[in-house]
Amino acid sequence: MLLVSGFAKMSSKTNELNTINVFPIADGDTGANMKVCLKLPVRNLLLKPNDNIMTVSRELAADVLLNGQGNSGTILSHFFVELAEAVREVNKSDMSVDEFTSCLIKAGVAMDSSVPNPVQGTLISVSRDALLGLEKQRPFATLDVLLKAMHKSCQIELAKTPDQLIVDGVKVLEKAGVVDSGAQGFAYLAEGMYLASIGELPNVEPRLFHTATLTTSDDSPPISVDHTVCDSKYRYCTEAVVMLKEGVTPNVVFDSVQKAASQEGIGDSSVFVKGFDMVKIHMHTNDPDQLFDILQPFNRDPILKKEKVEDMLDMRESMHGDETLDLADAKFTIMGLCSYVLPKSTYDLDELHTLPIFGVPSTTQEPIDMRFVSDEDVCVLLNQQRHKDTAIRYTTAAPNPMQLKIEILAALTKGKPLLVFLFSADKRISATGRNTMVAIDMLEDEQKKLVKVFVHGWTFYEQPFLTEAIKFAEGGKSIDEAIEACKEIGDHCFSFSNFVTSSSVRKLMAWRPGIFPEGFTVEDNSFIAFGLPVTTRDVVMPLAERVGKLMTVQNKAMSMVDLQDAEIARVKDNLKPDEKLSKVIVQTIGRIDIGHKFLQKMKDANVPMMDDVELSVCNAGIFAAVVSAWGEMAAVYVVKKV
């Protein structure tokens, strides 16, 4: 209950912690990362109650090591791993308040060991100094007295952070007008634990542990923060969990990583956590593969237990950048697969309406609304799917007509015509399309007149049609003008490359065998690129034939790098002398860095592109975990004659 209460208190402040996050880079994810660190571990404590503190602390430590991510989440996981080690040394199934005090102090002493160069005024120093401060106050008569002292000590140390954290001679927290976000999260955790000890549990949201929770309640007042005080020369927040080979010690792994960081400059912001037979490494880097390549020789399995790559620059832009979507003067509203396929940093998804699609895990059979699953949850899920012992089967479920009617009515409240995008209205191909058409028929006559449906036929490759419609809406164009522009793309200018592993192909063959050519086979451990010729089409392909073209093999290779090179060569070769790419939209599965590398390779290969070509890279959401695998990607092209 200490952990449930502490997590609930910290979780309720997720938005605040994200907002005040400025160091080491203002990517706005401190609260989210600390929440992810504890969400599943605390939930597991509730699902598997145990009154043996050694067992509980050990299982918690193993879970947080796997789930902790980002600077704050990884360092928080280090605290609980060290706390578990201190509990193990006591070697009792239960313990006195004084023994627990000693464990907390030992965990505080160990906080510095999580990073090569501990920085004052951060989660590390605040948790360390707050816990060490308990030594002078002991003994504590009861648990609540101990936790009250811990909470008070955290508050005292937290207040010091604006004066302590100095970067290049600048007190960055003081300049930004905040305290350290990770330290604040730890203080909230301590406060929640204290509240539990005196029976004043904070409000626990019913969806606190729900997989598909994106937002959190936050009663904090608006905060004014200068998010420009810190920057990073590295782009990707990268993490890995290594299952140690026999005879390999954690220090050998840590030393190898730190040597590459200090001597070869592959990254900074390193955080190390060791637990049982595995270790966790966090680093900011420009090339995640460099870190993964260093770690793989120490790993006992063919692939690392966990990988995570996040684009910090994209996250910062999404959190604090200028709004790039303004539909205030638009003459129509848009509904489609918006939140699944559009980058959040570029488009304000609140201005768009997304068709609900549900993922159904075989374990619970509880439909998950894919619109509201956080990026952090997707990362956890994708890593589960990478390993046979944790992978589960997912199916998809379409919304029913009444659910869709409610969504359509919500979109119509703006009093504007509504443009709905579907890949198919054929009930044999798309249940979502079929039910959307039924929902429209359920509307009043005047409402029906406001709804127009555009069927493009290219399944989930909807990005170019949505972005074109958005451009027309921003420009004050009519809904009919937008439809004509989208029709031109779908009929004549659309193409794609889908980079898929052989394992995913087999999963797709089992899921939708009818979309593959008769007699289709795939080689083990290979990579396949499905796609269309990258050129304009004079003959319009009927909608019914478009689905059948999606699994047309264009290239095969034994590595993703070779497959990318082959596809870039194909794109360049396909384009006629009077053709150039006007859009390239890359959607990646977990490894967003792979998408950026692909675009850079296209530029280096001098693939013909318009001067104002639109280039974007984004990570797919939970739907990717249903039909794709970690490290895959798809590139959508729009070709224009010049």
UniProtKB/TrEMBL annotation:
The GO biological-process annotations, alphabetized, read as:
glycerol metabolic process
Cite the entry's keywords alphabetically.
Answer: Kinase, Transferase
UniProt xrefs under SUPFAM superfamilies = DhaL-like
Could you name the domain of life of the organism this protein comes from?
Eukaryota
Q: What is its EC number?
A: 2.7.1.121
Q: Kindly name one Pfam family recorded for this protein.
A: Dak2
Q: Which GO terms describe its molecular function?
A: glycerone kinase activity; phosphoenolpyruvate-glycerone phosphotransferase activity
Where in the numbering of this chain does the DhaL domain appear?
1-195
Q: Which InterPro entries match?
A: DegV_domain_contain, DhaL_dom, DhaL_dom_sf, FakA-like_M
Gene3D superfamilies according to UniProt: 1.25.40.340
State the SMART domains in the record: Dak2 (SM01120)
**UniProt enzyme class:** transferase
For this entry, the protein name equals Dihydroxyacetone kinase family protein
